[in-house]
Design brief:
Elements lengths: L1 H12 L10 E7 L3 E3 L3 E9 L7 E6 L6 E7 L6 E7 L9 E9 L1 E10 L8 H5 L20 H4 L16 H10 L1 H10 L5 H5 L16 H10 L1 H10 L5 H5 L8 H10 L5 H13 L13 E3 L4 H11 L5 H13 L3 E3 L1
Parallel strand pairs: 2-8
Antiparallel strand pairs: 1-3, 3-6, 4-5, 4-7, 7-8, 9-10
Helix pairs in contact: 4-5, 7-8, 10-12, 12-13
Length: about 350
């Protein structure tokens, strides 16, 4: 990893014409040009593979240009081809109009699609009634050798964006798994190394039936944030843990976010893009900051030291906790302003 730190340090000092000697986005397409609420968008393309850049970053920028509808990573195949299925709709897709898809891998390539925030007539009843449910064809873009020791490196709750949802109880998912064969098949294909309880359930604590599988994570988070007596009780029972720790949502930041930080450090992503992406990840609980009731944020100037912190964390020179602490500092000191 020190090799990568040296490499990116040299790239920062090199002329811009040398920063992307190998990695290039050649082309990408979408399966349609117009999407509606609940549709599945399939993005396919090809890049010139550079072993030093393991993942492609895909951003979907809202029509206003100042927000993200989605951000994700893609691991290209050895021949440079890649595909990604993204589900449209939800709170970040609340505008009608042209959304820009930006693919970053060494260089950048942008194309636009149209989106209407209404369900299409061809949308199935299941998809309309469960817009947060990942479809059976959604696949994970991780190589098989990356999951050989997932019990030590991965929190399965953070594997698929939005699953499990904060507003659904573990019992909701367990019941669906036990009664819906198609749902069971989808889950088993996405989590071959886990049973349903390990992914959606709560770990037992020294307090019987706490947390309860009949209550959603959001239920406990809301109580902790709005009831001082409940917060005091929780802190006395779990002095070394946050509410997110007990609910199982704060043990891992997906590795692709490190690639996003690297791209920012090397100038491939602007300050505005990075901070918009950071806001998206905080807002959607991809990154969790303990004891911060996060809804949305704005910012003015990004301190240069935070770029260094992000670069060091991306290259494993500081810990994940130090990276989290730096974000919390920005929020507490009103550099990132919460709305």
């Amino acid at each position: 990893m020190k090799y990568f730190f040296m490499l990116f340090s040299l790239l920062l000092l090199a002329p811009l014409s040398l920063t992307s000697a190998h990695a290039t986005v050649n082309n990408f397409t979408t399966d349609k040009t117009l999407y509606h609420l609940g549709d599945s968008m399939k993005i396919s393309g090809n890049v010139d593979v550079d072993p030093a850049i393991p993942t492609i970053i895909v951003q979907i920028i809202t029509p206003s240009g100042n927000g993200l509808a989605h951000i994700d990573s893609i691991i290209p195949k050895a021949d440079g081809t890649f595909t990604k299925t993204i589900h449209t709709g939800g709170p970040t897709w609340n505008e009608n109009g042209k959304y820009v898809i930006k693919i970053s891998y060494g260089g950048n390539l942008e194309k636009s699609i149209d989106y209407e925030n209404t369900s299409s007539s061809s949308q199935s009843t299941v998809s309309q009634s469960n817009p947060s449910l990942p479809s059976p064809e959604q696949k994970l873009d991780i190589p098989s050798d990356d999951v050989s020791d997932v019990s030590f490196t991965e929190n399965p709750k953070m594997r698929i964006f939005g699953f499990p949802a904060f507003d659904k109880s573990p019992q909701y998912y367990i019941d669906r798994y036990n009664t819906e064969p198609q749902y069971r098949s989808w889950f088993d294909s996405q989590f071959p190394f886990y049973d349903i309880d390990a992914v959606v359930g709560y770990s037992p604590t020294h307090i019987e039936n706490f947390p309860s599988s009949d209550e959603s994570p959001q239920y406990y988070i809301d109580r902790y944030n709005t009831e001082p007596q409940y917060r005091s009780w929780f802190d006395s029972q779990f002095p070394e843990k946050t509410i997110y720790d007990v609910l199982g949502f704060s043990t891992h930041i997906p590795d692709w976010i490190k690639t996003y930080a690297k791209n920012w450090a090397t100038g491939e992503i602007s300050d505005s893009e990075f901070m918009t992406g950071l806001d998206f990840m905080l807002q959607n609980k991809i990154i969790v900051i303990p004891n911060i009731d996060y809804v949305h944020s704005t910012f003015d100037n990004v301190p240069s030291w935070f770029r260094n912190i992000s670069h060091w964390w991306a290259n494993d020179l500081i810990s994940q906790q130090e990276f989290i602490n730096s974000i919390k500092f920005l929020i507490q000191n009103d550099i990132i302003l919460l709305e």
